[in-house]
Amino acid sequence: MKGMTLLVALVAALCWAIGNLAYAQEEATGVRLVDEDVRIPVSNGNYSIAARILRPDGNGPYGAVILNHGAAVSAEERRTESPELLIHTAAQFARRGYVVVLPLRRGFGATGGEFAEDAGSCRNPDYRRGESAASEDIMAAYEYTRNLPYVDGSRMILAGQSAGGVASIYTAARAPQGLVAVLAFAAGRGGNPARNPGVPCAVEPLARVFDEIGKQVKVPVLFHYAENDHFFNAQTSRLWYDRFTAAGGHAEYVLQPAFGIYAVRARVGENDTVYNGVANFGVRPMFLLPAPLMEVHLLDFSGDLYGEILSVQFIAYLRGEMALADVETLKTQIAADCEEARAILASAPQDPLP
Predict the structure, then answer these.
(1) Pick from 192, 227, 256: which residue ends a domain?
(2) Which residues are 63's β-sheet partners?
(3) Domain span including residue 176
(4) Residue 312 belongs to a domain with what CATH number?
(5) In this structure, is residue 77 part of a structural domain?
(6) Selection from 187, 152, 158 nearest residue 173 by Cα
(7) In terms of pLDDT, which residue wins out, 85 or 239?
(8) Percent of the chain with pLDDT over 70
(9) In Å, how far from its chain's centre is CA 86?
(10) Most buried of 11, 87, 186, 236, CB within 10 angstroms?
(11) Do 252 and 294 reside in the same domain of the chain?
């Protein structure tokens, strides 16, 4: 983590991570969104999938995002899958002028039916078969969206979380018309943190899928992960990214910092002065924030920072987030964190901030 700059690590996550706050603030910002449920025919009308559309209230034409859910381990969890789980993220895109369509693939939520993308046993998974089935449903949602009267079909994005991220990249290999980018958040298959935190089963079989689609995907892809991802650790996610790019895929890999407390250095605006500080990146478990938040306390600083841009550099990880007993205990812990940060920063080399 030493020397890692927050600006690079977090920009890619904003639409994903702060969506909860955006949806809640819709009325305050004056942006009116239209929210509707639809059924989308697939495979020449042989079946249909449920989807939710969230879009700006206007005639457009708008760019569009097909936002794809993950795949829970248990059948019961798949039955309860809902666009509601990603609606806050969808709102962040919609407030920025995108139509967002959230399809439910076969075997999930209101779509129901068989779990078509089941790759089989981890001992010998057929990920190509599973991704092909998922891609069929995603393509149906994609073509449906392109033909909506308020959508600009030349500005299409595929996005997804976990299994939905892999399925989005796999769908991009079909070269859908109008596609400009893929956003894959924590993309992967085979993760089960209850059994083996951070290490999914069948890493190499999925890597071979990335070998294949890396040759076929012609648009830029974002691989975005968290350092402390309990499904896919950094070694695994980096391997999948490396295999995709080695095959010719154009992509960027972003590893978001782990939630927790950090010793940091910071600069205010264009000022040359660099301050030592302590930062909390996470959801503050004592206060149950709906989305990750970055808070920085500058040591020995006095002044008004409202409206200023702060450039922050992570120097050292102090500890993880904790739900402490009460506010007084929290104050005591904060004081201890500040003292630890002072000691670390006193001897840490000072690299220039960007």
Answers:
(1) 256
(2) 98
(3) 31-256
(4) 2.40.30.30
(5) yes
(6) 158
(7) 239
(8) 88
(9) 10
(10) 186
(11) no
- Three-state DSSP string of the chain: CCCEEHHHHHHCCHHHHCHHHHHHCHHHHCCCEEEEEEEEEECCCCEEEEEEEEEECCCCCEEEEEEECCCCCCHHHHHCCCHHHHHHHHHHHHCCCEEEEEECCCCCHHHCCCCCCCCCCCCCCCHHHHHHHHHHHHHHHHHHHHCCCCEEEEEEEEEEECHHHHHHHHHHCCCCCCEEEEEEECCCCCCCCCCCCCCCCCHHHHHHHHHHHHCCCCCCEEEEEECCCCCCCHHHHHHHHHHHHHCCCCEEEEEECCCEEEEEEEEECCCCCEEEEEEEEECCCCCCCCCCEEEEEECCCCCCCCCCCEEEEEEEEEECCCCCCCHHHHHHHHHHHHHHHHHHHHHCCCCCCC
Q: Phi and psi for 296 in degrees, rounded to 5? A: -125, 130
Same domain? 54 vs 68:
yes
In single-letter form, the type of residue at position 339 comes to E
Q: What percent of the chain has pLDDT over 90?
A: 63
* Within a domain: 16: no
**Domains: count for the chain:** 2
209 and 267 share a domain? Answer: no
Q: Is 5 a residue whose pLDDT tops 70? A: no
